[in-house]
Amino acid sequence: MYARDEVDPRTNPPPCGSERETLLGFLTYQRQTFAAKCAGLTDAQLATRSVPPSAMSLLGLLRHLSDVERFWVRIHLLGQSKKQLYWHADGNDTDFEFPYNQTELVPKSWRVWHKETAFSDAALSQESMEATVHITGHGEVSVRWILTHLIEEYSRHNGHADLLRECLDGVVGE
């Protein structure tokens, strides 16, 4: 995290970019916000469930956001995989299911997140904004919708990350 008197490490979205540049800019900004909320914490802190009785942790959010990227882009937009990263065979989400303070998961989870975000960026920068895919439970959705939904996911979970971080070490910020 950075203090208000420090330089903001995030890249602002372009104020006059194309639709794609603007949406990708906002997605990048929200991803950088999440990374900033995790910055400077130990692996043990990232794995800590700091708001009992909730099982939510920054590590769990990291795993969830990796799955969000994979679900919308790799699986549904491009149809390259049918496998979620952190799901049981019965279809239940396991992003937040891991033994307490399992710090050895942290480095791998960051690598997976970076891999999935890079994959998403490459795909989303190429696909037509008007291209659509059918997703069960959602119907036809466009690349534009997927991009907007990714921004919405990060924005919502950045609020959770802010509260989790404050409970861990008292740090609050942008």
- Helix percentage: 40-55%
Structural class per helix/strand content?
A: mainly alpha
Instruction: Estimate the mean pLDDT confidence.
Output: 88
Distance between the termini: 8 Å
CATH architecture assignment name = Up-down Bundle
* Percentage of β-strand residues: under 5%
The 3D shape can be described as globular
Number of domains: 1
Structure description:
The protein is mainly alpha-helical and 174 residues long. It has a single domain, classed as Up-down Bundle (Four Helix Bundle (Hemerythrin (Met), subunit A)), CATH 1.20.120. It has helices spanning 19-38, 43-47, 58-77, 105-126, 143-169, and strands at 132-135, 139-142. A two-stranded antiparallel ribbon has the order 1-2. The protein is globular and about 45 Å long. It starts with 18 loop residues before the first helix and ends in a 5-residue tail after the last helix. The mean pLDDT is 88.
Summarize the structure.
This protein is mainly alpha-helical and 174 residues long. It has helices spanning 19-38, 43-47, 58-77, 105-126, 143-169; strands spanning 132-135, 139-142.
